[in-house]
Amino acid sequence: MNTHTSGQTPDLAPAAQAVALSPEEFDEIDAILDDLRQRFEETPQWEFCEGFMAALIVSRRAIPLQEYLPVLLDTDDTDVAASAGAEVGGGTFADAAQYARFMELWQRRWSEIEQSLAVEVKSLDDERAYHPEVMDVRGAVAALPEAERAQMADEALPSFAQVWAVGFMYAVENWPDEWQPPRDKEARKWLDDALQRMVALTEDDTDEPTLSVFDDEGVPTVSVNRFNAFADAVWAVYDLRELWRNIGPRVETVHKEAEPGRNDPCYCGSGKKYKKCHGA
Were 58 and a residue from 229, 235, 240, 269 both cysteine, which residue would form a disulfide, CB within 3.0 to 4.6 Å? Predict the structure, then answer.
């Protein structure tokens, strides 16, 4: 299952390559989410959305927008463009243009992740690999002026990539049927191992920080074990995608209703015995 051990080359036509979001476009998504948060304070940060999206992409079933967007943004009507500015569930897009722009950026990021996961890479250092859009919140706070850091001294800051992993598991927990262990013993083991790697990342990093992930000269805020756990979780996303691709979608069991006995009254209400009516 471990697709990262393969040396195969990708089979993607250049014309099919997704257009990666720029830093400014990620800032634009953050601004939209901040605006939504003014009307629904539980609107998640983008890192949570990124993890949620990754889980949807590798889910066993292709879950439609109308089903997952209300779970993510607490909306109950995804056709916001048809009712611009109308309140939808707990959250409200400001207008049709804001909704359309959010969905445009969302779909581009979705396509980018899909294509990254479709490429078989040996190392996450490969520029074609999936690189989750995560933050080192503790590192960002450590870089603030002393006065601003002091104001945040009592705040519990998430560990590196913790919010991403929580978003991923939130999707798993909301569609448990799509993550039921397969019958095959080996496949079941792969599934459990991959999910355990993701769950491990939802925990706090309590080891000694020795790394500054995004700034070589920054204050160390991430432990070596945490950095390795993050890499393991990213590989888990690859493995989950490959697992469900190999197994295929779930097949619903059809339960046939028991037919009445030959001498029982027919179910149609004719008053005749079944053998002389519909059972003839």
Answer: 240
- Cα 175 to Cα 25: distance, rounded to the nearest angstrom: 29
Q: How far apart are CA 182 and CA 73, in angstroms?
A: 30
Beta carbons of 198 and 168 less than 8 angstroms apart: yes
Cβ(147)–Cβ(153) below 8 Å: no
223 and 210 Cβ atoms separated by less than 8 Å: yes
Residues 6+ apart with CB under 8 A from 32: 98, 101, 102
Helix 185-201 / helix 224-247 crossing angle, nearest 10 deg: 150
Token pair, residue 144, equals 């603030």
Question: Per-residue confidence of the chain (280 residues) as pLDDT tens digits?
Answer: 544 433 333 333 333 577 899 999 999 999 999 999 988 889 999 999 999 999 999 999 999 999 999 999 986 554 444 444 444 444 578 888 999 999 999 999 999 999 999 999 999 999 999 999 999 888 888 877 887 777 777 778 899 999 999 999 999 999 999 999 999 999 999 999 999 999 999 999 999 999 998 888 888 999 999 999 999 999 999 999 999 988 876 655 444 556 666 566 765 666 665 556 656 6
What radius of gyration do the chain's Cα atoms show?
A: 24
Q: What's the start-to-end Cα distance of the chain, in Å? A: 53
Alpha carbon distance 177, 168 (integer Å): 15
Q: Do the Cβ atoms of 242 and 3 come closer than 8 Å?
A: yes
Which helix or strand (DSSP H or E) is residue 196 part of?
A: helix 185-201
